[in-house]
Amino acid sequence: MLEHCGVILQQIEMIQEDLSLNSGKLSGHITLGLPPTIAKLLSLPIIREFRQHLPDAQLRITEGLSAQLQGRLQQGKIDMALLYNPAYSADVKTQLLYEERLYLMAPKNDCLLNADTPVNAEHLAALPLILPSVPNTFRLLVEQEMARHNLVPNIVMEIDSVETMLQLVAEGMGYSILSKYSIDLMNYKESIQVIPIESPQFVSRLFLRLRPNMRLRARRKKRIRF
Q: Least crowded by CB within 10 Å, which of 8, 19, 158, 193?
């Protein structure tokens, strides 16, 4: 996912309203919104590259759930954001950056499941799930995919913190559905096993979206490399 920092920086360079070109240098202010887990992974690389390639400009990073960030974009409070599975909008520039499968998170010593045996929708419906609250996009994705199989997830806890969800899973209080890199970021490899989900596969998509009606300048010849 780190390679997509270059795409983000190139889009920032092209923003007309907030970055002005003076003496061949771009200056001004840009606000970038990131979901919490993505912020943990990408904030530092983005800031490093921003300072290297745009030293006369200022970057502000704000965190929020994708639904919250989408609202801030619509209101013009932020300039661009990374969003999971955003609703379609014809008046904004949106670019797909990344697709990832979601997996079932189970306690390491779980006696019913193991990482070598995928689970399906029927298995998931029987498990006590710990998921974020609506309108979290992962939660909506799980509900929509299970509804296609005429099933309803058994949600026993609604937790909006990825780290807290993983703590609860590690303690055997339920199961969760998250991206595989979540346990890497939160250092839960030793206490949680990652189990593939088949039929259906839950595929989450990460998009870069600009605020409505934002004007872009022509791409500069200089290419940012990572």
A: 158
